[in-house]
Amino acid sequence: MALIKLLFRFSQKYPCQIALTLLLGLAGGLFNGVSTTLVAPILLNLFNQNIELKAVPPLIETIVAPFYNIPEPYRLNILLGAIVLAIVLKNLTAYGSSLVSVALARLLAADLRKAGLQMLLDVDLDFYSRVRVGDLIQKLGEETGRTASALKMALQMVVTAITVLIFLAILLSISWKLTLLSTILLVFLFLGNQYIIYRSKHFGNLLSDVSRQYSIALLEVLRGIRLVKATGNETEEFKHLERLVQEREKRNFQAQAHYLMMEPLNEVSSVIALILLIWLGQLFFVQDLQVFSAILLVYLLVLLRLLPMIGVLNRLRGQCASSSASINMVNSFLRLDDKPCMPNGSVPYHSLQQGICFDQVSFAYPANPEAMVLKDINLFLPQGTTLALVGESGVGKSTLADLLPRFYDPTSGVITIDGRDLREFDLQSLRQSMGIVCQDTFLFHDSVRNNIRYGRKDATEQEIIEAATLANAYEFIKNLPQGLDTVIGDRGVLLSGGQRQRLAIARALLQHPEILILDEATSGLDSLSERLVQSAIDNLRQHRTTLVIAHRLSTIQTADQIAVIASGQVVEIGTHDQLLQQNGFYAHLYAMQFLNSAEL
Hints:
There is one protein chain. By secondary structure, the chain is α/β, with parallel strands linked by helices. It is 63% helix and 10% strand. The strands form two sheets. A six-stranded mixed β-sheet has the order 6-7-8-3-9-10, sandwiched between helices. Strands 2-1-4-5 form a four-stranded antiparallel β-sheet, with helices on one face. Strand 7 (515-519), helix 20 and strand 8 form a beta-alpha-beta unit. The radius of gyration is 36 Å and the shape is elongated. It is found in: Cell membrane. It is a multi-pass membrane protein.
């Protein structure tokens, strides 16, 4: 059912290709049927038997009649020529149908992968907090690949089914009694195949499950390879992955073994069915043996051509059944109605004129709606000023910052820019107006140049150099082996922490953002790196509206406002000097940091 839904969903874009596939399949089936029925008069002619039209069913009579009045010396040659022509036309149309269906299958597979990619880009960050990256990679990779193959097989099944229906119609027109008998005999073949298909589906489900476990485990080992090596757990991790590989191959073998049973079962069953058909047919259905022989000859020829097609259908059904877990998984994966998606606004964002207001903002993560992370936050950030958020870890500072680019929306309350609800703005234009520099800087496995200009692919060489210079990054960039063209490794592993931060600042500078979000941008750096990064941040903050989250209070003393967050609430707000005079939480925190610095 899930396969039909996917096929219907993605095939609606290609009505012409589908119509052409079906039309060519129908033509191929008709030519195939004609070529098969013409064999009977050829054999009768070879054995010097007259073509007795009264002894054959109406359909065969219609096909054979044009050759009845042909003179005897020419009849055989014309019959042979007709059958060759029918076979040539059948193969040409079959080739055309296969060609179109393969092209259509490739389009559907590409659309399937694009839909998966688009879904991953459309969902909220909350979705990623609930899933494992390895699971997503498995679904978008192997499971989507198996589903794409199943879509291709479904198209092949449709084309093959057309020919099967044509041949069944021929069989019914020849003898409905023999066809009824054939159907009864073939029911047993169907039941045998159905059991194999059920078992293939079972092992296919197990294969998908263990493949998912392997992908997740492998990704975690690769992402944590430093920890694995540091703790000497290489052997243990290898054994764990080896066990999953062996389990995966075992399930794959079991699925293949059941699938391979189909062909010998179908062949043996077909031979038995043919023998029983001949014996029972002459025993129960026919009084005139000569008439029966003429009918049976054509009937058996058609049936012999039909049985392999039924075998193909069963084989394709078995393959689709073994992929059923992947199909169901991908079908669920592509659904958006059960995933959190950020609704987009329609108003393009242009510029900030007055300021940003947090009005009675409260927030709880959707995964835990009872635990309020933020409670009744009231803040106003005037245009061109800096607001710093301080407080202990886990009190909601980063969560509050995540609400501004609408990574999440408030559970209650509203955030406005110049009096307009943030949710009314177009997401892309809103986020492009913001520059975000976090403690956990992400860099691509790419060149320095491409990392800096990410988000602004049209940036000139001079603009890239200027941004790097303002970020205090150009000096170390010039000393890299290939300068701006140096590839910096996965997540910038070939650079130091301070260098990665300065590249992130250069990237933000290049975007010319109106609004800046700096989340612990200097945390975890040594003194020299911190000074360089802080200098770059000061360059970045000039003439911009800035929201800063800082652990080291020395970096935010010049902020226009400092808001102290505790238990998800604003407990103090003011300038550095004002908060010291209040002798509250901020003053206590400042004294503790100053004391620690003095002791060092």
